[in-house]
Amino acid sequence: MTHRCLVAAFVMSALAVLAPLGVFAQAPAGGAGESAAPRTTWGDPDLQGRWTNTTTTPLERPSDLEGREFLTEEERAARDEAGDVAREQRGIDAGTGETGSYNNFWVERGVRMARTSLIVDPPEGRLPPLTAAEVQRRPGREAYRSREPAGPEDRNLYERCISRGLPGAMMPGFYNHNYQIFQAPGYVVIFVEMIHDARIIPLDGRPHADPRIRQWLGDSRGRWEGDTLVVETTNFIPVNGRALTVFGAGETTEIVERFTRIDDGTLDYRFTVSDPTEYTRPWTASIPMTRLDGLLYEYACHEGNYGLENILAGARAAERAGDRAAGSR
How many angstroms separate the CA atoms of 262 and 288, rounded? Predict the structure, then answer.
């Protein structure tokens, strides 16, 4: 987007340590009988480049499309147009005290795909049922959203510019859903523009870190299966559900991602989430990535994070108003 700020150059600096100069050149395709996928100079499939997964296709299949995996082109275009109109109408409703939301100028919306949902398994295109234990936990997490915050730590990680979590960081939404993939011998780096996460993934077969070592985006290990990069991630800090992140993971969550380069302009990207404490079965989403023309930029979230400051100021004002009301009785 044209209003974003500076290029996030620190990833390039990190890769200067990981790889020698000239490591990004593409090798010729293999000979007869070998894969035609482009290769790096050291022989790995080449996934490098800038990519975006921006789309208005919903994660779950809408109820009015039950049983339908794909839209016709006419249906797809009509839903795309209806979504555009709805976004243009968002904004401040005078007299309500609400601040409204972004209008279409600020949103990188992409287009709706023919597929009716990003979820491809279960075949119904919807998240699987929750476990009984998770059903009991959800009300407490939802109540967290409406609680008056005592301080910034009471707001979610996304509002605090810390992380969107996984799989949230790899899912489309509203803007900045752009990625840059770098490769060096033994490593893949996935730089996420939204909240400037950089996922450094070793490919050397090392085991996962000690389970006591946990991170917002977990501990990732990669390997090649033919032309597909397979990334397995565990060791998440338990923030599952959407109350603390955009779409986070739990302590027992395991995520397996697959990246396959289809052609020069397309990556097939899909992930499978398994968590026996949250869902009754694993689920898989397919979110194609297309080549991005342009650069990734610094996501300067803290520098202009008036939202968090104003949320806290509003909470303090509400407390003062409550104290005054109690004192008048």
Answer: 10
